Amino acid sequence: MKVSIVGITGYVGAELARLLGRRPDVELLEVVGRSAAGQPIGKVFPNLAPLKLTVAGELERMTEADVIFLALPHHASAETAAEILEKSPTTKVIDMSADFRLKDRATYEKWYGPHPAAYLLLEAVYGLPELYRDQINPQTRLIANPGCYPTCSTLGLAPALSSKLGKPFIEPDVIVDALSGTSGAGRGLKQNLHFSEMTESTAAYGLEGHRHLPEIAQTLTDVYGSPVDVIFTPHLVPLSRGMLATSYARLTDDFVATYKTQAEATQAVRQYYRDFYANDPFVVIVDESPYTKQVAGSNYIYICPTINLSSRRLVVVSALDNLTKGAGGEGVQNMNLLMGLPETTGLDMLGLYP
Ligand SMILES: NC(=O)c1ccc[n+]([C@@H]2O[C@H](COP(=O)([O-])OP(=O)(O)OC[C@H]3O[C@@H](n4cnc5c(N)ncnc54)[C@H](OP(=O)(O)O)[C@@H]3O)[C@@H](O)[C@H]2O)c1
Q1: Residue 148 a catalytic site member
Q2: Could you tell me if the CB of 244 is within 6 A of ligand 1?
């Protein structure tokens, strides 16, 4: 199949090329990046040199592509997606930005400003295969690939709010504290990301509200079936790749009344999570807090749910690589489903450890 990547000069575009560049069933048709037009890809990202590709300044062969990934900032992505879908209706677009993730236009515009192509919001499918796999199929044209924080936190909390295997066992009021490596902020130069300002230091941000908050709330509300309140606090930590979310929720009275000991409750919940994700090849339920390093460079998310009966809380720790399961890997997982391929094609690499 012919695949193009727009935004190859950014971290997500480069991750997509890393994952797709060696696949025998994929021809990288065009890799587009305005700031490096005409340059060999290895000049921009030396790790990609063996791919021997030349960066294009513009997307010129869109009608030849089966799939086009847009790894661009919001607004630029929506404009490009609208152009592709108009000029080449059979091409599938996987948008890595936030432009099509929020279903409600007013909510989008509150966080991101006027939407350049709002008419596509309802057509776009939210590309979180573990929860929306049945909507990601060869008929789908436009995928809104989830944010990294939303993938990490919603997969950690969804089983406890879902009625798929039984009754929800937490109240619809959750707290998510999440840590991200600096590649989550993209490749552009920013003062707070300088080595001397970032190393051996950390801080929270987005205390007044972060753009991923409505996305997390939208998915959890959808899973639960009525509104879920979310407090979400992101933190930047001195890692290049990696994301860890710790989520907290109050247990229902029914749940607390069912178990006599914390160990028994935790064991039951871990089994419940394993059953919930039994058909999801990239979700691994673990018995100890995961480390970000265990999933680095892989498309896996490791999730560790624990019950604290004395405080009547569920505590879930989840870890993924923000550029892989949090972006490019999830994008490729979506591409596989769109093209009718096994979901794991080209994605079965393990974490790079240590
Ligand atoms: N980084 C992550 O962990 C992560 C995770 C999930 C989702 N995302 C999302 O994925 C997208 C890309 O993120 P990133 O981290 O790769 O960002 P990045 O490193 O800053 O790269 C952005 C890319 O967009 C291009 N670009 C910038 N402004 C443009 C414009 N107005 N028109 C066309 N191209 C433009 C840049 O290329 P030129 O400067 O060469 O034009 C560059 O290739 C963003 O929407 C981001 O929110 C990122």
Answers
A1: yes
A2: no
Number of separate domains in the chain: 2
Ligand 1 contact, 324 CB (< 6 A): no
Within a domain: 12: yes
Cα–ligand 1 centroid distance for 128 (angstroms): 20
Least confident segment among 71-75, 208-212, 333-337: 208-212
Q: In a mutational test of the pocket of ligand 1, which residue from 5, 18, 34, 148 has the highest number of ligand atoms less than 8 Å from its CB?
A: 34
Q: What percent of the chain has pLDDT over 90?
A: 100
Whether residue 169 is found in the same domain as residue 102: no
Say yes or no: 285 and 172 in one domain: yes
In this prediction, residues 84-88 reach a mean pLDDT of: 98
Q: Are the C-beta atoms of residues 277 and 154 closer than 8 Å to each other?
A: no
Q: Which one from 19, 85, 121, 148 is the annotated catalytic residue? A: 148
Residue 45 is assigned to a structural domain of this protein? yes
| Residues 242 and 124: beta-carbon distance below 8 Å | no
126 lines ligand 1 (CB under 6 A): no
Q: For residue 86, what is the domain's CATH number?
A: 3.40.50.720
Q: Could you tell me whether strands 125-126 and 170-180 are parallel, antiparallel, or unpaired per DSSP bridges?
A: unpaired
Residues written for the chain:
354
